[in-house]
Write a structure and sequence with these properties.
single chain, alpha+beta, twelve-stranded mixed sheet
């Protein structure tokens, strides 16, 4: 197939995909701006904000195209949830034909910012920069199998200073019913919504930013899902076979004691201390998958433990979970993970897939881990929604013409689209005029 034929076929499939999503926009007049917007996201270009995209999709009518695209993303009354549901219904069946959904991946993505007026911007940790800086944060939920992942939920994190500042809220148009939610609370809401929508369940995977929160792990369990989450080395755990002591015997006066207890000589250990105390026989070298140049392997141990965080406020010990730790021979850095409702032999495999799926998930975001990234929206009505409306369609997977759609090799991550021809005498905005 020559390039022109492949471009035509790719544009045709892309048009069918965008047309299917347009049914969720609520009005037929939004279909053409929506297609232009999706085209602008995919065409080459370092900047993905509205004006540069307008210049790429309609260079002869930049001002009119800019107004149309800006109205679509900032003013038009269409539902992000409805469009995400349409994306899910279009893409998820193709992914599931490659294999059942195995994991639900919780992650957050940082969008570096220079100013202070964008909704939710604050000095906080930004994964894209690897440090604390001025940025917005979006919490996301993706579903994944061994071959692909699909983001199905986004929500902008509104820091507490923003949530409490009535003046900034009013200026940005943050609705009154939007209150402060921690990132783990947002993630739990996304998981609950996905279950309610009938998405095939999987094991919840998250890094230590979420795994350290006992309420987050408890919430996942109450929703009937298992999890594999990172925890910090300071996380308190009861060693294998140990746990808090039973409540004190009743003295015969007052209310009988009901809370478990500890003693000075009977205390939980930190995750790192527990790992260091494991016998040599507990460790084994495990290879979990092929890497780019060599198999990926590590020195692991897995034992049954009980989380100990504030358990003296409970009437019974917490349930046992798997504690897995990776500790290289002679190394000083450890990776600690808690897993629930998984068999021992499945933990390492799930963690390996976790890393692989995380990478696939990040690659499908709109360049947020690289220089070519979509710009978070600033529209007031989107203050309580995800920043990346720009990202809705970058995860499109289109079968090649003439190949079976169920074949993994039949998919490319991005369609090939041809850019509109430039009109005679076209001069990009900002360039000097002719001498």
């Amino acid at each position: 197939m020559d390039l022109s034929t492949e471009v035509w076929a790719s544009e045709s499939r892309f048009g069918g995909y965008v047309e299917a999503l347009s049914t969720a926009l609520g009005h037929v007049d939004r279909a053409m701006p929506f297609r232009a917007y999706c085209t602008g996201l995919i065409l080459p270009g370092a900047r993905k904000s509205v004006e540069p995209m307008a210049a790429r999709v309609d260079p002869g009518r930049v001002q009119a195209a800019h107004q149309s695209l800006h109205h679509l993303v900032a003013k038009a009354d269409w539902s992000d949830e409805a469009v995400l549901a349409a994306v899910r219904s279009e893409v998820l069946p193709s992914i599931e034909r490659q294999g059942a959904i195995r994991a639900w991946i919780i992650d957050d993505t940082g969008f570096p910012k220079k100013g202070t007026h964008s909704v939710g911007v604050a000095r906080q940790y930004c994964g894209q920069l690897g440090k604390q800086d001025n940025c917005q944060i979006a919490v996301s939920l993706s579903v994944a199998n061994d071959l692909a992942s699909l983001p199905i939920g986004y929500r902008l994190y509104l820091p507490e200073p923003w949530a409490r500042d009535a003046l900034r809220r009013a200026k940005a148009g943050v609705p009154e019913d939007v209150v402060f939610r921690t990132k783990p609370e947002i993630a739990l809401e996304q998981i609950d919504s996905a279950l309610a929508a009938g998405v095939a369940p999987g094991v919840v995977l998250a890094d230590a930013g979420y795994g350290i929160h006992t309420a987050f792990r408890t919430g996942i369990t109450e929703l009937g899902l298992g999890y594999v989450v990172g925890v910090q080395s300071s996380t308190s755990l009861w060693p294998p076979g140990a746990g808090p002591l039973p409540p004190k015997p009743w003295s015969g006066r007052g209310r009988p004691p009901s809370r478990v207890q500890r003693q000075p000589d009977h205390q939980p250990l930190s995750a790192k201390t527990l790992a260091a105390a494991l016998p040599e026989a507990a460790w084994q070298q495990v290879t979990w998958r092929e890497g780019t140049s060599a198999p990926l392997s590590g020195r692991f141990a897995a034992v049954r433990v009980r989380p100990a965080h504030r358990d003296t406020l409970r009437s019974e010990p917490r349930a046992e979970e798997w504690f897995m730790v990776e500790w290289p021979e002679g190394g000083c850095r450890t990776v600690q993970i808690l897993a629930r409702d998984l068999a021992a032999g499945d933990i390492v495999g799930r963690v390996g897939r976790h890393r692989q799926a995380q990478m696939a998930h990040r690659a499908r975001l709109p360049g947020t881990q690289a220089g070519d990234r979509s710009r978070p929206l600033r529209g007031a009505r989107l203050a309580w929604l995800s920043p990346p409306r720009h990202a809705r369609h970058r995860g499109l997977r289109i079968p090649r013409q003439g190949e079976e759609s169920d074949s993994p090799s039949a998919y490319r991550s991005q369609p090939i689209l041809s850019a509109p021809a430039l009109p005679d005498g076209y001069r990009p905005r900002g360039t000097p005029g002719p001498a």
